[in-house]
Amino acid sequence: MAEKKPLKQYLMIPGPTPIPTRILAAMNHEMIGHRGPGFSKILGEVIEGLKWAYQTKNDVMVYPCSGTGGMETAVVNTLSAGDKALFVNIGNFGERWIKIAKVYGVDVIDLKVERGKACDPKTLEAELAKDKKKEYKAVFMQQNETSTGVINDVKALAQVVQKSHPDALIEVDAVSGLLAADLKTDDWGLDVVVSGSQKAFMVPPGLAAVSMSAEAWKAYESSKLPKHYWDIKNQKKFADKGQTYTTPPESIIFGMHEALKMIQEEGMENILKRHETNKNIVRSGVRAVGCRLLADDSCASPAVTAIFPPEGIDGEKVRSEMRRFGFELAPGQSDLKGKIFRIGHLGYVDYMELVATIGALELLFNELGTKVEIGKGVKAALAEIK
């Protein structure tokens, strides 16, 4: 007899995330002229909605690309070859920003933090103090690190930079963190912020948004790094006309237009509370079934949780076997591959989907030889729903 396949897939990864029917329906739209007034109206409303999500009055530009494209945009539009920049590196995506900067000849200082930890503001303060001549042009940091399930205290880190190096730009990778955790672009003095459509926005991959402060625009004027597709001034010239420089992925923009309506209807406070509850459900549930967590509670991500399986069980084995129950989990990356698995809980993820994930883990661990009291993890998870 053929193995029974699950009736439904539960996408429990930190991106791409599940998409609501309402957004899918909005994307199921005929193409329209991307240089015409109909598209201009939609794009203008998308940009205004993004400003709401960013909590900013700064310019926000939309690029047809992944979050990595937005990260490259941040580098090439604010720096020149030989410029000295500090990169707060708490995981795989901190490493990625460093790789991008090195390709362009930026003088990279890598502030590498132990995996599973957030950057302590005092550590950043000490590193900045070494730069006696105030040569840093920018400090790059992640809001949320998906590879380790860690959230940085961006507000505190930004305050350290502003005190020590007031002329340095503060550039933030908020691709997986925006809307999962609070991020006040203007109030915290953030100069460049990057986000991606496939995370808490609940939209398919394909759009990145990049905000630019007045100080970032000044840096653009002196930036000498090569750029064409990523030239943000060129993108702004078209955005001011309600257009994108290149042909846009209209379906995804239609989806983002609807997503921003949904997000604003829910309200920022409720969105953040929902993600915080999701985090607590997963952390309490997996702890109750005998798993250890990579990040401690002080820096735990509201977007994704990195989990060590019980002793003797490989993280990749957990992922492959969970597919039998219909659950797709995320792998460990780089040095953590096979050591951990990750559960994404951002965007369009319901509380009860997470409870079901914990229940499936209970069944699986028992199958794999680790005795788990059935229902213990589920009970702990349910206790977090208030």
UniProtKB/TrEMBL annotation:
Transmembrane segments: none annotated. The modification N6-(pyridoxal phosphate)lysine is found at residue 199. SUPFAM superfamilies: PLP-dependent transferases. Residues 10-324 form the Aminotransferase class V domain. Keywords: Aminotransferase, Pyridoxal phosphate, Transferase. Its cofactor is pyridoxal 5'-phosphate. It comes from the Bacteria. Pfam families: Aminotran_5 (PF00266). Substrate binds at residue 342. One of its GO terms (biological process) is glycine biosynthetic process, by transamination of glyoxylate. GO terms for molecular function: alanine-glyoxylate transaminase activity; L-serine-pyruvate transaminase activity. Coiled coil: none annotated. Belongs to the class-V pyridoxal-phosphate-dependent aminotransferase family. This is Class V aminotransferase. The lineage of its organism: Bacteria, Bacillati, Saganbacteria.
